[in-house]
Design a protein that fits this description.
By secondary structure, the protein is α/β, with parallel strands linked by helices. It has 2 domains: about 1-45; about 50-235, von Willebrand factor, type A domain (Rossmann fold). The protein contains 6 helices and 9 strands; from the N terminus they run αβββαβββααβαβαβ. Strands 3, 4, 5, 6, 7, 8 and 9 form a 7-stranded mixed beta sheet that branches. The protein has a two-stranded antiparallel ribbon with strand order 1-2.
């Protein structure tokens, strides 16, 4: 009987030990399973803060910047084209390597950087090439606003940037190849807004907006409002 009693006690101890171990393990597993898989997070989960650049005194935030700049005859009257080139060049110089960008100059046609039609990554080499290109852009003639803004929007649509900004700088004119200006500008708003399927912010900077430019001012305001952007007037 003594031997049997000892065996029973030892078996009981063993069972108790196994039970405690199972409970401990089970509790640990349950505790872990109750946590969401991403509770601890992963390094690099947070988005990088946006670039902030100043353009004609206005702060722009994003990681993709796409410019459409009027280089028509009116933009050369009082140095407006030179000022616009200076503003664009300063922004390009400030971009970090994570930024994507493109620049379009418009008159009766367009000139664009990069010429490939795909956005540039702001590496030191690409920034240097862009600055040289912008510096060499001469004045032109004519004002096909729709074509230039649409080209900047195309760059934006091809960009992998998460926060994109398109900026149009000009006098708001739309005398494109003899078109009736009011009808051309109306068509421009509907065409650009329709092509903006990613709902990219389009900001408009109006220059040379004297009292006789009411129609131009009105259409630039409408273009910005229809595309979630702002209108700013430079005197």
């Amino acid at each position: 009987m003594r031997s049997l009693y000892l065996i029973v006690v030892c078996l009981g101890c063993f069972g108790l030990t196994q039970l405690l171990s199972a409970q401990d393990i089970g509790g640990g597993l349950k505790e872990n399973l109750d946590l969401p898989l991403d509770a601890m997070g992963e390094p690099g989960d947070e988005e990088d803060p946006p670039e902030v650049v100043t353009f004609y005194g206005q702060n722009l935030e994003g990681d993709g910047f796409f410019y459409a700049v009027d280089r028509s005859g009116s933009m050369q009257q009082s140095g407006e084209l030179a000022r616009a080139k200076q503003e664009v060049s300063r922004n390009v110089s400030e971009f970090s390597s994570k930024t994507e960008f493109a620049v379009v100059f418009l008159d009766s046609g367009i000139q664009k950087f990069p010429s490939s039609g795909r956005p540039a990554q702001a590496s030191p080499g690409m920034k240097s090439a862009a600055l040289s290109w912008v510096s060499g852009i001469p004045g032109g003639g004519g004002s096909c606003m729709m074509q230039g803004v649409r080209e900047a929007l195309k760059f934006s649509n091809l960009s992998s940037a998460k926060r994109k900004v398109v900026v149009y700088v000009g006098d708001g004119g739309g005398t494109c190849h003899g078109a009736a200006e009011a009808q051309y500008l109306k068509e421009m708003i509907s065409t650009i807004t329709g092509a903006n399927f990613q709902r990219v912010q389009i900001n408009c900077i109006g220059v040379l907006m004297g009292s006789s430019r009411a129609m131009h001012r009105n259409y630039m305001k409408q273009l910005a409002a229809a595309n979630g952007g702002s209108y700013r007037e430079i005197q």
